[in-house]
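In keeping with the milestone schedule agreed at the kick-off meeting, the structural modelling team has produced records for the first pair of proteins. Each record is given below as a sequence line and a C-alpha cell line. The laboratory manager (R.T.) confirmed that both were archived under the project's standard naming scheme.
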Amino acid sequence: MMSQFEPNSDMYERERIVLEYIKNNSDLHHNALLKLIVPQFMAKTTFEKTRNSLLEKEIISVTAKGNMKFYHPTENYEQRSYQHIERTTNNFFHDLKSKIKRLDTDYPHKDIDEKIKISNSLLRNLLQTDNGFTILDSAKNPKKTLYRDEHLMIQQLIHKVIDIIRNDSDFDIIYPTIVSYLGIIMPKNSLNS
C-alpha cells in the first residue's frame, strides 16, 4: 500500500521522459514533440497532463513562435526552486501559526471525525513545513541551522496540537488514530521495508 507521501513512480517516470525529450529536442514544436512521445511512452492526454505538471512546477517553460509552442528547461531552475521552497514554506508556516492559535477555541466544538482530520492535517503540515526549512538549511549552509527559530517554533506548535488533543474529552479515541496516522509518515524500522 502506497501512502500519499510516497512518490508515484509512474508520474515521475513520465515527467522524466517528457523533460528528457524537451531537453534533447528544444528545436521541436509541440506537435513534433508529441509525435516522439505518444504513443510509445504515454497517451496524448497523459502527455498533456505531464506537460502541464512540469509547467506548473516551473521545471519547463514555453515560448510561442507564431502559432507553435516550444518547450525548454527553465533556466536557473535550482536557484528558482529554492526561492519557491522558501516562499511557500514561509507562507505555510505563518498560516499554520494562525490556524493553531485559533485551535484552542475551535477544536472542542468539533465532532470526533473533524478533530481527527484537523489534528492529522496540522501535524502533517507542520512536519512538511519543518522539512521545507531543513531543505533550505541544507541548501544554504549544511554546517549551520539558519532556520533555528522556525524549527523551534514548529516543535512548540506540534506540542501545542498534541496538548490540545491530550486535554480533549475524546482523547482516548483521537490520540490512537493520530499516532496510527503519523506512523504512515514516520521513518520505518528499515529502509528496505
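The second protein of the pair:
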Amino acid sequence: MLSFYRALAGKLQPLQPLWLLFGLASLCWLGYLLLLAPVDVSQRWQLTALVSFAFMLNVILLTLLFARPPLSADANDFWGRIQQRLRWLMQYLLAWLVTILFLIIIWLFLRIAVGIIGPLIF
C-alpha cells in the first residue's frame, strides 16, 4: 500500500500547483454557495462543492505525505529501532486514513451523481 501511494504521489507531485488551484477554486465556489447564492442554487450544488474541495484536499494531502519515504536511520540501539518502526506504522496508518477518505469521497460523489443525473433521465 505504501509503495502504491509513493508511486502515485511521485506522479501527482509535479501537478501540485494545479491541485492547489483547483482546491482554491472549489473553496471559492463553496464560499459563494454558502454566502451569496440563492437558496435553491445553494441547496443543489453545495454538496458537490464540498466533495470537490475534500477531494482536492485529499490529493494535496497524498502528495505531501507520501512524496518521500520516512527517513531511514541506522537503528543499532533499541530506541532507534522503535522509532523507525513507529515512523513506518504512522505512514501505514496515514495510508489507511487517505484510503478511507477517498472511499467516503467516492461514495458521496456517487450519491451526488445519482441525485443529479437521476432526475434528469427519469
